[in-house]
Amino acid sequence: MKRIMIVFALAALCGGANAQWKQGEVAPSSKRGSIPPTEIDKAEVTVYYAFNADNIKDENTYIDLGWLQVGKQYTKYASYFMAHSDSTYKAKLIKHGAAEGMPMQKNGGKFPSLWSEYQYDEIFIKDGQLTEYAIMPMNLERECCQYTEAYPMQEWTLKEEQQTIHGYRCQKATCRWRGRDYEAWFTTEIPIQRGPWKFGGLPGLIVKISDAKKEYNFELVKLERTPRPIMSWNFSRFRKVKRQDMLKLQKKINVNWVRVLSPEAGNQFPDHPYSPMELE
Predict the structure, then answer these.
(1) From CA 36, how far away is CA 30, in angstroms rounded?
(2) Does any domain span residue 129?
(3) Domain count, the chain
(4) E-strand spans in 121-227?
(5) What's the helix, strand, coil split of the chain in %, to 5?
(6) Peptide bond into 28 cis (omega under 30)
(7) Using an 8 Å Cβ cutoff, are 70 and 78 in contact?
(8) Per-residue pLDDT tens for 247-266?
(9) What is the dihedral of CA 180, 185, 187, 191, to 10 degrees?
């Protein structure tokens, strides 16, 4: 009974947001923050991307602010909002301890108190292999998992169209990948064959990319060449799974995360439509 009451209390906190993003609850994961992260490389270039921004000039309208860190050995893509949140939360713990009633951590962006796999997951690329660590929402930490696959994955078609975006001369490229059609703009002025999230493999840095339905989009907002550490949490407890199994679980969480936690309680809440980036 206590478990079900907790589920109902958590579910009540999820109301009031857009259906695409209303599932889950932000809370530090014991598998993410109990051991301090370690430095695995040094980023020579850091690129910041607005994710699903209403206004590219106002980060409060972003779903997330992602950052791409490019080092000599590793490339990492993760949420800058979450990195800032982790630092702030750690400072609060040092000052106040794990006191009951500690306020929910604000991550930034449009819906600062909600879980999204695109904000919580961390992606590392090394030696042509991409590993994604899926960090699940509060009370579902047992489901944290990881998978590895070859990188890059998209097969691009280069187009003749060009335009200037944020001061960079960009060329258009398209692809169909995992159930969606994408349009990307890349620049050879920055000879890094990377991009936001899992995208890459073009002759230069991806400056902007969106799917044909405009459900998901990323756009460069800042580039830094100041060296900074690339950090990695201790992911040793994350179980290894197939990519498809991880996607199925994440979709279930977005559709009705209470049901994943407690089937009996979840059946009393409506499902929410959810269309992830990877449809296949």
Answers:
(1) 11
(2) yes
(3) 1
(4) 122-126, 129-134, 145-150, 157-165, 168-177, 180-187, 205-211, 217-224
(5) 25, 35, 40
(6) no
(7) no
(8) 999 999 888 888 888 888 88
(9) -10
Judged on CB neighbours under 10 Å (0-12, 13-18, 19+), 21 is: buried
> For the purposes of burial, counting CB atoms within 10 Å of the CB of 267, is it exposed (0-12), middle (13-18) or buried (19 or more)?
exposed
- What residue has token string 């109301």? 15
> Residue 80 belongs to what domain range?
2-154+217-266
What is the distance between the alpha carbons of residues 278 and 243, in angstroms, rounded to a whole number? 10
| Amino acid identity for residue 160 in this structure | E
Q: Is residue 203 part of a domain?
A: no
Residue 243 region by backbone torsions, left for phi larger than 0, else alpha for psi between -120 and 50, else beta: alpha
The string of pLDDT tens digits covering residues 20-44 is: 444 444 344 555 545 678 999 999 9
pTM above 0.70, yes or no: yes
CB atoms within 10 A of CB 256: 19
**DSSP type of residue 238:** S
Q: Looking at 70-74, 188-192, 202-206, 269-273, which range is the least confident one?
A: 269-273
- Residues paired with residue 229 on neighbouring β-strands, in sequence order: 42
Indicate whether 182 belongs to any domain: no
The answer to whether 181 and 173 are in contact (CB under 8 A) is no
199 lies in a domain?
Answer: no
Q: Give residue 120's identity as a one-letter amino acid code.
A: Y
Count of positions (residues) in the chain: 280
Contact 204, 45 (CB under 8 A): no
Nearest Cα to Cα of residue 69 among 209, 229, 244: 229
Q: Phi-psi category of 165—alpha, beta or left, where left has phi over 0 and alpha has psi -120 to 50?
A: beta
Q: 202 Cβ partners below 8 Å, 6+ apart?
A: 156, 173, 184, 186, 193, 195
